[in-house]
Design a protein that fits this description.
Elements: H1 6-14, E1 18-23, E2 30-35, E3 38-40, E4 43-46, H2 55-62, E5 65-70, E6 73-82, H3 85-99, H4 101-107, E7 114-119
Antiparallel strand pairs: 1-2, 1-5, 3-4, 4-7, 5-6, 6-7
Helix pairs in contact: 3-4
Length: about 120
């Protein structure tokens, strides 16, 4: 792991929310949203709150390059979209473990897709 990433990964380990920036598929502009995440074994897992109907997910379909800001530190990631039901279910369980099953049920309405990203 490159030394320059230690501080960023430390921010991820201590945070409950990040700012996700994606390129708008129609506008071409950077669009930022606060999102929950799970950082596990050098992978960043994201779960769209409305599944495949979530706008930032649709934008990531078109351009998988995403930017993450956490605690003022930024990094670029390459995202991979996950549609396999077993893989999505595994990611949902990671979110339940971090945020609690009640809050995941309260805020998330569709579990058909997820996203995993690796730092560039």
């Amino acid at each position: 792991m490159p030394v320059r990433n230690h501080a960023f990964q430390g921010h991820l380990a201590r945070s409950r929310e990040i700012t996700l920036s994606v390129m708008g598929r129609k506008s071409g502009r950077s669009i930022s949203n606060p999102v929950w995440f799970v950082w596990d074994e050098d992978h960043l897992y994201l779960l769209p709150v409305r599944g495949s109907d979530t706008q930032w997910y649709k934008n990531a379909l078109k351009n998988p390059s995403i930017r993450i800001d956490v605690g003022g530190a930024e990094a670029e990631f390459k995202s991979t979209l996950i549609t396999d039901r077993k893989q999505v279910a595994s990611i949902v369980e990671k979110f339940r473990a971090k945020y609690g099953a009640g809050d995941v049920k309260k805020y998330y309405s569709k579990f058909d897709v997820a996203l995993v990203a690796q730092m560039r």
